[in-house]
Write a structure and sequence with these properties.
It contains 5 helices and 12 strands. The protein is of the alpha+beta class and 228 residues long. The chain has a single domain, classed as 2-Layer Sandwich (Pseudouridine synthase). The strands form 2 sheets. Strands 1, 2, 3, 4, 5, 6, 9, 10, 11 and 12 form a 10-stranded mixed sheet that branches. A two-stranded antiparallel sheet has the order 7-8. A hairpin with a 3-residue loop joins β1 and β2. The relative contact order is 0.17.
């Protein structure tokens, strides 16, 4: 499997993870076809810094040594790192920007969903901003302020606008895309070697581009249009 490498140096490796590939083995899975193992064949030992769901595509960063790993872990703990996602939501909202702050509890029930739980859930916050609308869908920029499992998916559903294709969180059946239309678009952090701010963006995969085209989203500027 060919993985699109966005950037590499002695400290970090940044890739565009394809949808359908797990970062690490899941549950009882014993297949060697998880991302860390695939990359290790060319890059040797790598340290995971953050993860994406198996069904989520987009930018993902690995550390290439223990020192870089500690630096990036500290930045995550101190909320220095910014992760920006793009997603297609079902339905037109009555907001342009909104903050979802529903407390979330993960691994609920036999489906292992993340659910809103005011009594026992953990404090969570996700910011949504509409990029474009078309018919009964919205293309949004999403910035999670915390790192709960399935946080974006659960908060989108709690707002009444599940992610297109996300059957687990209430999206209707669709032929637009075969997975949740969620893409990790950009990450911003301080380089563990230089301490300088760096940012990396991952282009949309083909299935998300096709869904956007079929929904006829209108863009207000050429730079955003060129991103797809």
């Amino acid at each position: 499997m060919k993985i699109d490498v966005l950037y590499e140096d002695e400290q970090i490796l940044v890739v565009n993870k394809p949808a359908g590939v797990s970062v690490l083995p899941e549950g009882w899975e014993r297949s060697p076809s998880f991302l860390l193992n695939i990359l290790a064949q060319d890059y040797g030992k790598l340290w995971t810094v953050h993860r994406l769901d198996k069904t989520t595509s987009g930018v993902l960063t690995f550390a290439r040594n223990a020192t870089a790993h500690r630096s990036l872990n500290t930045q995550f703990e101190q909320h220095v790192i910014t992760k920006i996602y793009h997603a297609i939501l079902v339905g037109k909202s009555n907001w342009i920007e909104i903050k979802a702050s529903h407390p979330l509890r993960s691994n609920a029930g036999h489906s292992h969903r993340t659910v809103v739980d005011p009594a026992n859930g953990k404090k969570s916050e996700t910011r949504f901003r509409i990029i474009s609308t078309a018919d009964d869908h919205s293309l949004v920029e999403v910035v999670p302020q915390s790192g709960r499992t399935h946080q974006i998916r659960a908060h989108a559903s709690a707002l009444g606008h599940p992610i297109l294709g996300d059957r687990l969180y209430g999206s209707p059946i669709t032929d637009m895309i075969k997975r949740p239309a969620l893409h990790a678009y950009r990450i911003i952090f301080n380089h563990p070697g230089t301490g300088q701010p760096v940012e990396f963006s991952a282009p949309y995969p083909e299935d998300l581009v096709e869904a956007i085209r079929r929904l006829h989203f209108k863009f207000q500027n050429s730079s955003r249009s060129n991103s797809i």
